Amino acid sequence: MGWGMYDDASGEVQNADTYWKAQDTAARKYASFFYVRWRWSDMEPEEGKYAWKYNDNFKKLIQGALDRGLKLSFRVYDNGQDNLRPGTPKFVREAGAKGYHVRSEKINHWTPFPDDPIFQEKWTNFVKAFAAEFDNPDIVDFVDGFSIGALGEAHSIRLMDSSKLRQVFDWYTSLYSDNFKHVLVALPFNGQVGFDTEKK
Fold this sequence. Notes:
Blueprint: E1 3-8, H1 16-29, E2 31-39, H2 40-43, H3 51-54, H4 56-67, E3 71-77, H5 90-94, E4 99-103, E5 108-112, H6 117-134, E6 140-144, H7 165-179, E7 184-186, H8 195-199
Parallel strand pairs: 1-2, 2-3, 3-6, 6-7
Antiparallel strand pairs: 4-5
């Protein structure tokens, strides 16, 4: 609980030096957590090349938060609707995942169907590696454990088989809860899944 700092990478991700110079006073005086809401394509641009190992800017953003006494929180999403770039790394499509295009006035990004088995395999690999790095309550407050749909907000979800929404919901949330065993796993409420499902 408390005030949060926020990097929503719908445009460019924040430059760490610029961000912390601008936000230093607010971070130290008011905030309690730093919420990183990034595209999967930024977190793993090439298969197995994770931002926390290979992206110096990401590492500086995270260290900047920790240096200011902030806990971390995360949402990583695959659907780049209304984004500068696609949310899913190219290697997922190149591996044969089926998907569709999310369109708005200026973009036409490909995104995978959440019930596609190749997407599920690649996403599972990412979440396991992500949890191995960040399932640490000393530095992480929470992670979003259901981040499909537009911007990971659990709406505008499209499936190959629309009858599988509950199945996808169970797979996705179980994947997070099976791997993040020490950090709170959060769920955005949205009517597309349905309140009965969310309550259960």
